[in-house]
Amino acid sequence: MKKVLILTDFSNTARNAALYALKMFVEENAHFSLLNAYDLEFSGSPYVMQVKEEMAYESEKGLKQEISVLKRVCPEAVVDAISSFGSLIDVVHEHIGENHPDLVVLGCRGESALENFLLGSNAYEVIKNIKAPILVVPKSAQFKKPGKIVFATDLQDVKKDEVMKPVKDIVDHYRSALMFVNVLDDEYVNRLDAESKIEAHFPNVNVSFNFIEGDDVVKSISKFVNENDAEMVALVRHDISFFERIFHPSITKQMVLHPEHPMLILHDEME
What pairs with residue 263 in β-bridges? Predict the structure, then answer.
């Protein structure tokens, strides 16, 4: 059974991401966990325990309300609530270590740079520090069956086949076309060899490789996505260049200013 961890701060953005995930995976009989992390910014007050108890109560209350809303839309979905004290990163790390979810889902507001993702700047910390597949859903995104997925790539192969599994599962379930796109730069790559290695991860899948030019990586990829009417963007976060080129704060500001498409971020080294 597919296990999906959804992060929430009870905002409309978080709810939209949760609904997107439910609609996308409910047909696969997925098990959804809705997680809210709460933490104290101070610890020296004599009222800490009282405040912590109040925060726990509000967290549990909010989760019940959110699940009620989600179940009205997807009554067949199995959703449990997780209220955890601690920093978001620590809480998510702990949950992944104990439960090994197949996917982590969070929302982005799409109002400004990455610092304004759902849960504040913590969302970027999730993307950087949580080595698990992450689906980032823009505030305005409405679920559509992904007929086309654009996979932004630096043509590096992944270390393990399982890294590609979240994309493979979506492609297999929805019979999606998978469009790999590489922004040409000065670095030499044996394209045929690279394509062969990547394609080997996706047997019996409609795969294409596309090469585009442009100094602005994000703008070039976004243009390609829009021109091809794709519903989703995927990429692998390697520890080096390509991910940082896209998610460097100055570039990310462009990418999330008015995001339209969910992004599936994979990690080459899984937790």
Answer: 136, 233
The owner of tokens 């890294």 is 163
What are φ and ψ of residue 106, in 5° steps? -145, 165
Task: Centre a 10 Å sphere on the Cβ of residue 10 and count the other Cβ atoms it contains.
Answer: 15
Strand-pair partners of 212: 183
User: Taking a C-beta distance cutoff of 8 angstroms, is the pair 66, 8 a contact?
Assistant: yes
Main-chain phi, psi angles of 233, to 5 degrees: -120, 135
| Tokens linked to 254 | 């462009």
Q: Report whether pLDDT(34) > 60.
A: yes
With a CB cutoff of 8 Å and minimum separation 6, the contacts of 123 are 106, 108, 114, 117, 136
Smallest Cα–Cα separation from 88: which of 58, 127, 133? 127
Maximum average pLDDT range among 115-119, 218-222, 238-242: 218-222
Cβ count within 10 A of residue 61 = 12
CB neighbour class for 101 (10 Å; exposed up to 12, middle 13-18, buried from 19): buried
- Pairwise CA distance, residues 112 & 43, whole Å: 32
In 3-state terms the chain splits into helix, strand, coil percentages (rounded to 5) of 40, 25, 35
Sign of CA dihedral 111, 114, 118, 119: negative
218 φ, ψ (degrees, to nearest 5): -65, -45
Q: What is the pTM of this model?
A: 0.87
